[in-house]
Write a structure and sequence with these properties.
Elements lengths: L1 E9 L2 E10 L2 E6 L7 E10 L2 E5 L12 H10 L4 E4 L10 H14 L3 E4 L1 E2 L15 E4 L13 H6 L4 E4 L2 H10 L4 E3 L5 H7 L5 E4 L1 H5 L17 H9 L6 E2 L8 H5 L11 H10 L5 H20 L13 E11 L18 E11 L2 E5 L3
Parallel strand pairs: 1-4, 5-6, 6-7, 8-9, 9-10, 10-11, 11-12, 12-13
Antiparallel strand pairs: 1-2, 2-3, 4-14, 14-15, 15-16
The structure holds N-carbamoyl-L-aspartate and zinc ion (3 copies).
């Protein structure tokens, strides 16, 4: 299959090219490749959009979300690979459950995936599995998977670790850490200031970038939304944010109205960032770094994936229309969580088509 006239967004700018795809892989990238093909007519395209922070639920929480609905939501939001979090029911803290989870994704996922592994106390199961990160909950959140083990013992294993933490505990783990440490959902000004000087991977979420503290139960989330000063600190320190991840955390409306924490944000993450780029808050290159290139490097180097924009990579592409105006309508989400604090937002920038390994898995209706 030949894709003609793409404008591919990379950290080094926009590459105008044709792309040859065979058996789901990129086999050629050139200014002009002769032959008949699908004409992208100069559309902007992101290669390999990865969401490193997704709670796909399923197992005993199919009422919240399933792998199928979660990944359908992902591709509708232009995400072509999801990385799943282990605070499921049952939790992914044994090699048996990890294997179950993997085969569930292999059967049901409509996009690429990788899994994280949870640890509560015993670290010996870790050597039996192949997660992207070992996820450690150091302050309480959905699933109550609090780490009760020894930080030094875990960090001495040299597995890449992702933490959900408060600032004091983050400081301690930064001191002890010698490997790869991924800090989930950096949300406050003191946190971003502290992490500026640290050798860690810093993630921010769209809700902390776009919302502030309010009493709408639909925006209840951990860590909680901050002040306008916190929110602005994230934007003014964008250079210290390595990854933007949705922290897609679906709950039913009923559960939200009873205080559940978590926002189903995978369908709105890229559109909100496109909207922000239209308003001059960041560039398309900034988005490519944080949604594509940094996550690709992690998956490629740690798990041997072939994600990104190069010959030999999986042909994962997200076609966008930067100028298209539309209104976010949560009742039309593919996610089972058909509610959002962004419901009704009028934005500019839309995902129009998503391809995973060369196959079209999403196309916008109108
Ligand atoms: C997440 C969830 O519901 O799984 N909730 C949230 O508020 N972010 C858990 C988490 O990421 O801490
Ligand atoms: Zn968390
Ligand atoms: Zn989370
Ligand atoms: Zn009720």
């Amino acid at each position: 299959m030949l894709y003609k006239n793409m404008k591919v967004v990379t950290s080094r700018g926009i590459v105008e090219c044709d792309v040859q795809v065979d058996h789901g892989k990129i086999t050629q990238i050139k200014k002009d490749i002769s032959g008949e093909g699908v004409d992208f007519a100069g559309s902007l395209v992101f290669p390999s959009v990865i969401d490193l922070h997704v709670h796909a639920r399923d197992f005993n929480e199919k009422h919240k979300e399933t792998v199928k609905t979660c990944t359908e939501a992902a591709v509708a939001g232009g995400v072509t690979t999801v990385v799943d979090m282990p605070n499921t029911n049952p939790p992914v803290i044994t090699s048996e459950v990890f294997k179950m989870r993997k085969s569930l994704f292999e059967r049901e996922s409509v996009c690429g995936f990788a899994l994280n592994f949870g640890v509560v106390d015993a670290v010996d199961e870790i050597s039996k599995v192949t997660p992207l990160f070992v996820k450690v909950y150091l302050s309480d959140t959905t699933g109550h998977l609090l780490f009760k083990g020894d930080a030094k013992e875990l960090l001495s294993l040299k597995n890449p670790v992702a933490i959900h933490s408060d600032l004091e505990t983050t400081k301690k783990w930064c001191r002890l850490n010698k490997g790869i440490l991924y800090v989930c959902h950096v949300a406050s000004k003191p946190e971003i200031e502290f992490l500026k000087g640290q050798q860690v991977i810093r993630e921010a979420t769209p809700h902390h970038l776009f919302l502030t503290r309010n009493d709408n139960p639909l925006s209840a989330v951990k860590p909680p939304l901050g002040s306008e000063e916190d929110r602005k600190a994230l934007w003014s320190n964008l250079r210290s944010i390595d990854v933007i991840g949705s922290d897609h955390a679906p709950h039913t409306l009923e559960e939200k109205l009873h205080g559940a924490s978590g926002i189903a944000g995978i369908e709105t993450m890229l559109p909100l960032l496109l909207h922000a780029s239209n308003r001059g808050l960041l560039s398309l290159e900034d988005i490519a770094v944080r949604l594509c290139e940094v996550p690709c490097k992690l998956l490629n180097s740690l798990l041997g994936y072939r994600k990104g924009f190069f010959v030999g990579a999986d042909a994962d592409f997200t076609v966008i229309d930067l100028k298209r105006e539309w209104v976010i309508n949560a009742s039309e989400f593919k996610s089972k969580a058909k509610h959002s604090p962004f419901d009704g937002w009028k934005i500019r920038g839309r995902v129009v088509k998503t391809l995973v390994r060369g196959k079209t898995v999403f196309e916008v209706d109108s």
